[in-house]
Design a protein that fits this description.
Helix 2 runs antiparallel to helix 3 and helix 5 crosses helix 6. 11% of the residues are buried. The protein contains 6 helices and 2 strands. It has a two-stranded antiparallel ribbon with strand order 1-2. The chain is mainly α. Helices cover 69% and strands 7% of the residues. It has 2 domains: 45 residues; 57 residues, Arc Repressor Mutant, subunit A (Orthogonal Bundle), CATH 1.10.10.10.
Length: 108
């Protein structure tokens, strides 16, 4: 979920956190707000994952350099379906690819 969407969804609390931070002369209220929003977003994304996507993430957690072919073997679905799920996970900002073919996966 893009940051702009998250802020818009929580706009009133966002501005209140900014105001509270300004009044106190410290960023603690804003940081607490953002951490809460991030936690809620992570929970929301986690709840929207399919079983196969959860298995993919777990296998990436065990081996960040795992290939789509190996994921296919581990998860039990075709390489094409693995690639579709990887694209969805990237779009959800759940994972990202660092480097090219010889790179690795990072769980966000």
């Amino acid at each position: 979920m893009p940051t702009e969407s998250i802020v818009k969804k929580n706009q009133e609390k966002y501005y209140q956190a900014l105001e509270d931070s300004g009044n106190r002369g410290e960023s603690t209220p804003f940081i607490e707000f953002m951490l809460e929003v991030i936690l809620n977003t992570v929970r929301e994304v986690g709840n929207n994952l399919t079983e196969n996507q959860r298995k993919i993430i777990e296998n990436i957690r065990l081996n960040s350099k795992i290939s789509a072919v190996k994921l296919s073997e581990k998860v039990g679905i075709s390489k094409r379906k693995i690639e579709e799920n990887l694209a969805k996970l990237k779009a959800l900002n759940a994972i990202k690819r660092v480097g090219g073919t010889r790179g690795y996966w990072e769980i966000l």
